[in-house]
Amino acid sequence: MWFNSFSYLWFLPTVLIGYYAIPGWRARKIALLIASYFFYGCWNPPFVLLLAASSLIDYTIGRSLGTVASPARRKLLVALSCTVNFGVLAALKYAGFLLGTFYSISHFAGITSLPLMPAWIGKLVLPVGISFYTFHGVSYVLDVYRGRIAPKKSLIDFMLFIAFFPQLVAGPILRAAQFVPQLETRRENDAIDWMRGGYLIILGLFQKVVLADNIAPLANLVFNDFGSFNTIELWVGVYAFAFQIYFDFAGYSNIAIGTARLLGFSIPENFRMPYIATGFRDFWRRWHISLSTWLRDYLYIPLGGNRCGTLTTLRNLYIVMGLGGLWHGANWTFVVWGLLHATYLGAEHLLQPTVERIPNAIRQSRVTRTVVSVVTFQFVCLAWVFFRARSVSAAGAMLEQLLLPTGLTMNFHSPVVFYLAIGAVAILAGLLVTDRDLPKHLPAWAWGASAAVMLFLTIFTWGDANEFIYFRF
Amino acid sequence: MPTNSSTSGSERTFVVVAAVSFAMVIGALSVSYELLVRRSEALYGIRRLNTGSPLSSSPKIEALVSDLAAGVHYSVYALGTSRTEEGIRSDEIERTAGPTFNLGLSGASMLCGFKILELLDERPALIVAGVTPMDFTTLGMLQGNMPLRAARDSLALLHRRPDAIERGPAAAARTMTYAFVHGASPARRRNLGQWFDLFQMHGDLLKFINNADAVAKQDYLWIRGFFGVPRVATPERFRELQPIGIPAEYVEEHEPLYAELQEAVARQRKRGTEVVFVRLPLAPIPRAIEDAAGFDRDIRSAAARFGVRYIDGSALVGNAFIHDRRNFVDGGHLNASGATKFSHVLADALRVNVPTRVRH
Questions:
Q1: Which end of chain B is least crowded, N or C, by CB within 10 Å?
Q2: Which of B8, B10, B13, B14 best probes binding to A when mutated, by most A CB atoms within 10 angstroms?
Q3: Could you tell me the CA-to-CA distances from A167 to A187, A274, A288, A348 in Å, in that order?
Q4: Is B96 helix (H, G, I), strand (E, B) or coil?
């Protein structure tokens, strides 16, 4: 069941009516948990058991951490949680990739007597959303271990934290500290909350159905047959993909945040206009914020962050971004994408002292910021080539064509500029709606009218429900 | 709507004004658009048109199988490689031959198209087989395996996993929505790019909404399997035949595949389907290369042996057409403009092969 499907159109109002019709808070939470498991089971019912088992293990480990005092045993419990969570993830998501890499290396080293790779490896089905709920569970255990939160006593609350359907399959990645306290007290909405929730859902659908799904064919065309296009056409295709993936994922996040808001919950924002970032650190503060802060808090900082000298900082960046890339999928293209971003971040780190010598008036001027923004965007787009390409070699060949001009005329007509203009309005609307104090920004009629136009366009350009890109991760 | 007391008076007013303006604008837009759609349907009749760009790896097979599952069947199928896919406009052929689906599959032998039709148990009145040397090569047969597999998978999905199709309340909600709001149904769906083209080209709005006549620029337009490519061949590409090794492979491998084609044609005939071979227009140099490999002689002789009508597209459109690179993407493929012109002439030429019962 996708957010942009008729099934969801039916599912959400049913859940809302049922949820608010139930008087008791505990009963409401149980109903929400059942709805979340139903939502998840729509993809592949048996995987509901995996979700439940993963939740039970982390719940039990969390409870044990609350009672065990011995540091060694506490570490053992954390190691157990990481092993189980990441072990399941590795087995289901990365087994083929790891074995394939092993075989390639062996073949390269001249070892040819290995048995054939087991056929069942290729038949493994990746449970949808596993990368997201694994991170939920691990972050909970680590937070309890570090004493940031108390272990959750209520099993219902904990299972709901892991399985809460708006964010279950494609994020944003929730932290227990952000979400679990909201389960303590009965959630109620005021009129502004209802309006914001509804507006975010309409905005998200518009970003997905009208923008991302309409830009996708152009990106697909160019990436699937890049050899037939010249440099300018390739750049248009790369820009198209950059906006496709942004609208696709931001659209999903907005629907998730809006749905949670209608249920009375607050989920943190996941995107903050990433393509106007001035630099790569700034980009990662704006793009997939829940993942980048997760990696920062649970991997980069424990590794030493930027506190142990330049070389260690660079090493940490490569480890974190390489793994961050791998989190997106079992393919070297994602790893290279992550490492490329690590290189960008490392270069920015090394250039930082030089940049700081530039007078503030120049550094912070609007012109400088615009230029830096444009340059950052180009580098981000170059990295998207690896993210979208079928293989590293294909990405390399495409990069060569992008950077060594082969033709500077555009031989296809595309309304992509038209979409981008509409997209800019949608981004602006998204920025404004995250602010609680709505009346300050736009008159009420403008809010209503813009939502109506977006909904109208969504309904009348509604195609087949296309899968969200981030469901694959 | 459950609300709590934290909403201030000004916020409440804000929400009320926003909600009223939302209702007014969505009402005004939807009702006026719906009236336009219904007016258009009254003018032109309701004609289903599957317009949209291919998004998945085998979109054509998925689209066809979903049509068949929905009870939509076609009287004419165009089979062949990318030359057919990009060269025969379904809506043009429909003018004389009835509902048409272009089952041309890029890189795949037309023989795989025959197999897919048999697999789907489709019995059209007419098969327009776009013949090329690639149809008679191992490469063409191998590349046809993927769509063939997709057809098998899609069928299996339909038969074994009925839950894969939306059913129950969700399906009812969809049906009711489309019955009530014609403009929102997939057959009436227009993406923003098409609207953009309409206004840029000052097209006829009512025709466009009905899509009785494609007003929009044929920009990667996907109409029942036809995939129109807007690019114009450069002088170099106009002289090229791609892939370059096909004529040589054809010379070595064609004989058993002609025998297979003969059997496929015979089976279709038994099922009551007429078959016509069409060689799509080619630029002069690629045509000469293919003829030198013996293709023209072989296909004419095969058509005569099988008792099938053969239409030479180059002869049909004439010399001026095939010497004008503005009709081509490269030496072997028509672009959207060339495909429109050629399909128009082809539709007239096919009149004699179309049983009266399916003619429009």
A1: C
A2: B14
A3: 17, 20, 13, 33
A4: helix
Instruction: Evaluate whether B194 touches B216 at the Cβ level (below 8 Å).
Output: yes
User: Residue with structure tokens 């490999």?
Assistant: B293
The four Cα atoms A238, A241, A243, A245 give a dihedral, to 10 degrees, of -140
Q: Does the pLDDT at position B166 exceed 70?
A: no
**Span A86-102, pLDDT tens digits:** 888 888 777 777 777 77
* ipTM over 0.85 threshold: no
Mutate which of A4, A221, A243, A456 to test chain B, going by most B C-beta atoms within 10 A?
A456
Q: What's the gap in Å between the CA of A136 and the closest CA on chain B? A: 29
Question: Looking at the partner chain, which of B170, B186, B220 has a beta carbon nearest the beta carbon of A10?
Answer: B170
Which of B15, B16, B192 is opposite residue A415, by nearest beta carbon? B192
Q: How many CB pairs under 8 A join A and B?
A: 150
Interchain CB contact of A191 with B (< 8 Å): yes
Residue A190 to residue B197, Cβ atoms within 8 A: no
- The identity of residue A102, as a single letter, is F
Examine the residue annotation and report whether A328 is marked as an active-site residue of this protein: yes
Contacts of B16 in chain A (CB under 8 A): 444
% pLDDT > 70, chain A: 86
pTM over 0.90? The answer is no
Q: A-chain residues within 8 Å CB-CB of B9?
A: none
* Binary contact (A194, B13; C-beta < 8 A): no
Asked if residue B227 lies in contact with residue B220, where contact means CB atoms within 8 angstroms, the answer is yes
Is the alpha carbon torsion for A291, A297, A303, A307 positive or negative? positive
Q: pLDDT, tens digit, for every residue of B270-287?
A: 888 999 999 999 999 999
| Residue-level pLDDT at A418 | 64
CA distance B290 to B305: 21
Q: Cα dist. A70→A73, A74, A113 in Å?
A: 5, 6, 48
Convert A412-448 into a string of H (helix), E (strand) and C (coil).
CCCCHHHHHHHHHHHHHHHHHHCCCCHHHCCCHHHHH
Q: Dihedral sign, CA of A37, A203, B183, A413?
A: negative
Interface of A with B in 444-463 (CB under 8 A): 444-449, 451-453, 455-457, 459-463
The answer to whether the beta carbons of residues A278 and A372 sit under 8 Å apart is yes
Lookup: tokens for B305: 């042996």
Using the predicted structure, report yes or no on whether residue B19 has a pLDDT greater than 70. Answer: yes
d(CA B161, CA B152) in angstroms, rounded, equals: 13
